[in-house]
Design brief:
The complex is a heterodimer. Chain A contains 11 helices and no strands. Chain A is mainly alpha-helical. Chain A has one domain. The longest helix of chain A is centred in the middle third of the chain and has 31 residues. In chain B, a hairpin with a 2-residue loop joins strand 8 and strand 9. Helices cover 39% and strands 26% of the residues of chain B. By secondary structure, chain B is α/β, with parallel strands linked by helices. Chain B has a 6-stranded mixed sheet, sandwiched between helices. Chain B has a 3-stranded antiparallel sheet with strand order 2-1-4, covered by helices on one side. Chain B folds into 2 domains: 146 residues, Rossmann fold (3-Layer(aba) Sandwich); 67 residues, no CATH class. The chains are: A mainly alpha, B alpha/beta. Chains A and B meet through helix 1, helix 5 and helix 11 of A and helix 1, strand 5, helix 2 and helix 4 of B.
């Protein structure tokens, strides 16, 4: 088997067996449907507000499923001193990062899917088919950022702090887009994360899919993800990753 | 066989290795002896390929395996899964790998723990798992960094037996330690490191002779506090 897939398969098994972490990530992903569900009971005729809230929760959900795995797969690997044995295998550091990134992407995607399923059940409505093209790149970017941040940290505690901060990024970007008057300007649709909020909200409103924007933001997101993966692989080339604690 | 010539390594402004040259022959256990910070771990990490030297040459015939951190296991995987993962990364064909794993489990006497997650293992069981992982691709050269630290007496003895058996198959084993007793019990050759340099090498009796000392401890003290070592 290809080394990238071997590593991805190992991380999937290992991550899945950490049932408490899986349960906490699943709960986090379902927080959106929970909160929006409560608000929808409390306020009548709140359609627009609810959709804005849903779009932000969905945006955040793309980042939460893989946090635990990203933390464990690199910073945790250093902390428990299994990184050196792993690096002794004939595997390039780029392949190592790619394998771990694939696994984290899978967990991020699962979190997002759970979130969308929650909303779909809550409102008895099938999500926009455009999401199948809009959202996977977002999960890939989230995973790449999580892996990259994890390579910068010496241990799980540090990674936990910074990865929790990373989850604020979509939250802040989403809030900003919901409340800001500049959000109407067209070019925001091409900025990863912020533009995703606009397009998710449009999809949830039932607006016709803006395919050129979905393609363009997909490309921008793929470039950003590739940069984060390259940065992570470079970081693993440095001596202090192997040396010291 | 491993041949190391003029290895140098800097970490920023700190020189870790100034000049390390030694020879570790096949069918022998070579001990790297040195105080903390002498350069043992750095040397082994370079030999394993996880660190790059600033200069110097390494010649090794055949593949190398290493056990540099025996704590480094995945707690949710079993030894069998750990070995399968490692073997796949070494690109061992599946049918061969399956047989190899069974062979290692038998060689290290791990039958009763092979399918238990390593999370609950004792230090001795962890050491065996890590050693099996280092051996999964049948390396001709085996590097071990302080393999006995934290082990209880039965585990240390078991490790010694295993290393001798591996050596008797013609393997080249390099073993680092700062415990003299351990090296005396196990090593055919000794390389003494001090301040990032090799200050002596040879059989234990050759090293004692060179330092004009009656025993290895006196030789170690004489050699590592000599002016050339302090430079």
């Amino acid at each position: 088997m290809n080394p990238i897939l071997t590593i991805a398969a190992k991380e999937l098994t290992d991550g899945w067996r950490d049932r408490r972490a899986v349960a906490s990530a699943a709960l986090y992903s379902l927080m959106g449907p929970g909160v929006v569900g409560m608000v929808s009971f409390a306020i009548h005729d709140a359609g627009r507000v609810l959709i804005a809230m849903m779009s932000v929760f969905t945006l955040v959900a793309a980042f939460v499923g893989g946090v635990n795995v990203a933390m464990d797969a690199i910073a945790g690997e250093r902390e428990r001193r299994s990184l050196v044995p792993l690096l002794m295998h004939p595997v390039t550091r780029r392949d190592l990062v790619l394998g771990k990134w694939l696994a984290v992407s899978a967990f991020d995607s699962a979190g997002l899917a759970l979130n969308l399923a929650g909303f779909a059940l809550l409102f008895r409505r099938v999500p926009s088919p455009a999401f199948a093209f809009l959202l996977p790149p977002l999960c890939f970017l989230a995973a790449a950022l999580e892996i990259w941040i994890s390579t910068l940290c010496r241990g799980v505690k540090e990674a936990h702090t910074y990865l929790s901060m990373l989850v604020f990024l979509p939250m802040m970007a989403g809030m900003f887009m919901v409340f800001s008057p500049v959000a109407g300007q067209g070019w925001w649709k091409f900025v990863p994360v912020a533009g995703h909020q606009l397009l998710i909200e449009a999809g949830m409103r039932g607006a016709p899919s803006d395919w050129p924007a979905i393609a363009a933001i997909g490309l921008a997101t793929a470039i950003a993800a590739a940069m984060a993966i390259i940065a992570a692989a470079r970081r693993l080339e440095q001596d202090d990753v192997v040396y010291g604690g | 066989m491993i041949e190391v010539r003029s290895l140098q390594k800097q970490f920023g402004a700190v020189p870790a290795l100034r000049d390390v040259s030694f020879h570790a022959p096949d069918g022998a256990i070579t001990g790297l002896l040195g105080a903390n910070g002498a350069g043992k771990s750095t040397t082994l990490r370079i030999l394993c390929g996880v660190l790059k030297p600033n200069s110097g040459k390494i010649r090794a015939d055949g593949v190398t395996g290493g056990m540099l951190d025996h704590a480094g296991l995945y707690s949710r995987l079993t030894p069998r899964e750990t070995l399968a993962f490692s073997g796949r990364l070494h690109r061992i064909p599946t049918s061969l790998l399956r047989a190899r794993i069974e062979e290692l489990i038998a060689f290290l006497g791990m039958e009763s723990i092979a399918d238990r997650p390593t999370g609950g293992f004792s230090q001795g069981e962890r050491m065996k798992t890590a050693l099996a992982r280092a051996l999964v691709h049948s390396p001709r050269n085996l590097l071990l960094d302080e393999p006995t630290s934290g082990l209880d007496i039965p585990s240390v003895r078991a490790l010694r037996v295993l290393l001798r058996r591996k050596r008797d198959t013609g393997a080249c084993i390099v073993f680092s330690s700062h415990v003299l007793e351990e090296l005396r019990a196990l090593c055919d050759r000794i390389v003494i490191l001090a301040g990032g340099r090799v200050v002596a090498q040879g059989t234990p009796s050759e090293v004692c002779e060179r330092a004009a000392a009656a025993n290895l401890e006196d030789a170690f003290v004489a050699l590592t506090t000599a002016p050339e070592a302090a430079a």
